[in-house]
Write a structure and sequence with these properties.
Length: 177
Amino acid sequence: MNAATTTPFTPVHSVVRHADGRLTQRGELSFFTIELNRLGAFKSENCFDVPAEDYCAGWLTGHRCAAELLAALECTNGPRIDVTRVIEDAIHAGNDPTGKPGRRGASAAFMEVMAEAVKFMGKHGNNRPWLERKIEMAEKQRDFYAEREARHRAEFNTRMKSARQAKRTKQAEKVAA
């Protein structure tokens, strides 16, 4: 896990068979772990798989993880990394109980670096046009899904009315016969 921002990004994908029969594979970053089923197919992933350590040692680990993530994101040809999922898993790791070794220190340090990166981007990036496009796209998507939902609801109501009418007609025919 020695990630320096000057080191070129190289993914590690070796499969490890554990004593309990589990298969795991390292993902795009050293703290990504993919769990495989017994046939080797994807089962789950952990995007912030760091060891349980005392808080200060975890603090160092968290900074290293953040450096590794940012170095990977610098690479123009790097793999697709779901940063949202990484942050969610890091936040979840911060829920470990206090007073014993855990992942809280790594989580806190990682999130501190992510917060600073967001502040830096906000201060030095030209974000307004990009965010305006994102908002416009979100509004279009909201309108599209609202229209589609209304259309599906209307089609469903029409089918239900037809089905009720067919049922009434069938019952009336039974009574008449």
